[in-house]
Design brief:
Number of helices: 16
Strand content: under 5%
Distance between the termini: 46 Å
Order of helices and strands: HHHHHHHHHHHHHHHH
Number of strands: 0
Helix content: 55-70%
Largest sheet: none
Shape: globular
Structural class: mainly alpha
Length: 341
C-alpha cells in the first residue's frame, strides 16, 4: 500500500535537501517529523503518557520495529485527518505502516520478555488509537452505512490482548515507566458518585436477568460484573472529569464472554455497550475519538427492539439522538458534549 520508490529531489517540510531519497523515504521523514512535532501532543491529556509518547516511544522505535511503524502509521493518519485534500496520499501510508506494525507486533508478542514487554504494552495503546482514528479518515468506517458495533468489537479484542499481555508481564511492566497505568484503573471511583441514570438502567437489567430462567449463570455473572465495571468507570469520571481516557480501560477488564455476547448482538450486551459509549464521549476532545459515542449508540438503538430501546433512552438523549419508536427515524446527534453531573 506504500508508494513505490522513485527518485526525488524534493525537500522535507523542514527544508532539508533529501537528495536522491525515494518518494517513500521522503514521506517517512515527513511522518516522523510530524509525529515528533505534533501528533504526540494529541494522543493523551495525561502528562506521564505524553512524556512517554514524546520521548521514550520514538527513542525505542529504533529497537522495536512495531513501535517505529506504529508511530509512522499514527502520524500518517493524523495528517490524513488534518489535510482531507491530501488523504489519498497519507491514508495508504497509514494503512501500510499499520500492517507492518501489526505483523512485527504479532511476532514479538510470541516471546514476551523483560526487555520488550513495556514497549509491547505501549504499542497496544497505539493499536487502539489507530482503530479509533480510522473512524475519522476512512470512508468505510466513518460513513453512516458503516457498522460501528463491529468496529468497537474489534477495539475490545485489541484491549483484551492488552489484558493478556499484562497477565504475562505485569511484574516487569509495573517496574517500568508505565507501571502507574496498572495501578490507576478506578482509584478515584466513589460509590456516591455513581450516576443515577446508570444505576436506574442497571437495576432494570438486573431485573430482566433475574427473570430469565434460561440464561446460564456464567452469562448472568458476566453481565453483572460488566455493570460493576461501568459503574466504577462512571464514578471515576464524575469524581475526576479530566480523566477522559478512563473509559478505554473497560474493554480490557470485562470477561471475554461479554465480547462474545456483543459479537452475537445480544440485547443485554448492546444495552450495556450504549452506556459504555456515553463514557467514550470524553474522547471527543481528541481528533481520533470524535463522533464515536453517538455513532455507536445510534447503531445499537437500531438493533434493539422497543422494550430494550427504552433502557437506552438516556444515552440516546445525552448524545443528541432523536428518540423515536421507529429505528429508521433515529437522527444524527445534535449536541457537542455531555456531563454526568
Amino acid at each position: 500500500m506504500a508508494q513505490s520508490p522513485s527518485p526525488s529531489t524534493s525537500s522535507t517540510s523542514t527544508g532539508v535537501d533529501v537528495g536522491d531519497l525515494s518518494a517513500t523515504e521522503v514521506l517517512n521523514l515527513e511522518l516522523m517529523h510530524h509525529y515528533s512535532t505534533s501528533t504526540w501532543m494529541t494522543l493523551s491529556d495525561d502528562y506521564n503518557a505524553l512524556h512517554l509518547k514524546r520521548a521514550l516511544v520514538p527513542q525505542q522505535a529504533m529497537s522495536h520495529r512495531f513501535t517505529l511503524h506504529g508511530i509512522l502509521a499514527l502520524a500518517a493518519q493524523h495528517l490524513a485527518y488534518l489535510k482531507p485534500d491530501q488523504r489519498s496520499r497519507y491514508l495508504p501510508s497509514a494503512l501500510s505502516h499499520y500492517d507492518l506494525a501489526v505483523s512485527s507486533y504479532r511476532q514479538s508478542i510470541q516471546k514476551i520478555t523483560e526487555e520488550n514487554c513495556t514497549m509491547l504494552f505501549a504499542f497496544s495503546s497505539i493499536l487502539v488509537q489507530f482503530a479509533f482514528g480510522l473512524g475519522q479518515v476512512q470512508p468505510s468506517v466513518s460513513s453512516q452505512e458503516s457498522d460501528t458495533i463491529a468496529s468497537i468489537i474489534e477495539i475490545y479484542h485489541y484491549c483484551r490482548g492488552i489484558a493478556t499481555l499484562v497477565e504475562v508481564g505485569r511484574e516487569w511492566i509495573s517496574k517500568g515507566i508505565l507501571g502507574y497505568l496498572l495501578r490507576r484503573k478506578y482509584v478515584n471511583a466513589k460509590e456516591e458518585n455513581e450516576p443515577p441514570q446508570f444505576k436506574e438502567a442497571f437495576e432494570k437489567i438486573h431485573t430482566r436477568l433475574d427473570r430469565d430462567g434460561s440464561m446460564p449463570n456464567e452469562k448472568k455473572e458476566t453481565y453483572q460484573e460488566t455493570m460493576k465495571r461501568l459503574l466504577q468507570c462512571a464514578a471515576t469520571v464524575v469524581t475526576d472529569p479530566q480523566d477522559k481516557a478512563i473509559a478505554m480501560i473497560v474493554p480490557s477488564t470485562v470477561r471475554p464472554m461479554f465480547v462474545s455476547c456483543l459479537e452475537a448482538r445480544e440485547p443485554t450486551a448492546l444495552a450495556l455497550e450504549a452506556y459504555h459509549a456515553v463514557l467514550l464521549y470524553g474522547l471527543d476532545d481528541f481528533w481520533w475519538g470524535k463522533g464515536w459515542a453517538p455513532r455507536i449508540i445510534a447503531d445499537i438503538a437500531k438493533e434493539l427492539d422497543e422494550s430494550w430501546r427504552e433502557i437506552i433512552l438516556w444515552p440516546m438523549e445525552i448524545v443528541g439522538l432523536n428518540v423515536s419508536r421507529d429505528p429508521a427515524m433515529i437522527a444524527e446527534p445534535q449536541c457537542s458534549g455531555i456531563s454526568l453531573t
